[in-house]
Amino acid sequence: MTVKKKPARKAKIVKKGKHPGGRPTKFTKEIKVKAEKLSRRGFTDVEISEIIEVSERTINTWKLKQPKFLQSMGLWKDNADEKVEKSLFERACGYEHPETKVQFVQGKDGGKWETIDTIKHYPPDTPAASLWLRNRRPKDWRDKIDHELAGKDGGPIEVQSSPEDKKLLQKIAKKLFKKAGDG
Q: What is the pLDDT along the chain (183 residues), one digit of tens a residue?
């Protein structure tokens, strides 16, 4: 009995500019610009995917296949994080900024609007300072404190007792065993 071999399949040659198969990508320049704007405003990948109407997995695939897209998304997210970090720091330490106040001044001839340039002061904010310190120096500012007991070099705790202590413990153990046997 002879076995006939099937002829090898030839690979399809795809012309340049033509999609190799599967569903065409939704990734366009417009989508890229929209995603970058959302990223710049602090949106997460999940939120961006919902707005663009694709799955988060698709966003991650685009990041893998489009290095410039990945780079720009990361850059904008880093910028947003730095902006929040700076704002939290200023809030924790207190800050000031110039401000122009507009007020109506009553006069003999009716009144007029005047602008006054001032400097507005914001005092340090305790919760912001606490958040900053808990995240930047967790060993010193954690809410949870570990109370761990350990012996020398992290080993077990060694308990030393005197001969009198040992005799007392033996008497107690005998009485306990005697009561347990009676019960």
A: 566 666 666 655 555 555 566 777 788 888 888 888 888 887 888 898 899 889 889 888 888 888 888 887 877 777 777 888 899 999 999 999 999 999 988 888 888 899 999 999 999 999 999 888 888 888 888 777 667 778 888 888 887 888 888 888 888 888 888 877 765
Report the C-alpha gap between 170 and 139 in whole angstroms: 44
Closest listed residue to residue 128, CA positions, set 96, 81, 86: 86
Residue 120, both tokens: 């507005």
Between CA 6 and CA 105 the distance in angstroms is 97
The candidate with the shortest Cα–Cα distance to 39, out of 9, 76, 8, is: 76
d(CA 132, CA 127) in angstroms, rounded, equals: 9
Strand partners, 100: 117
Whether the CB-CB separation of 45 and 60 falls below 8 Å is answered with yes
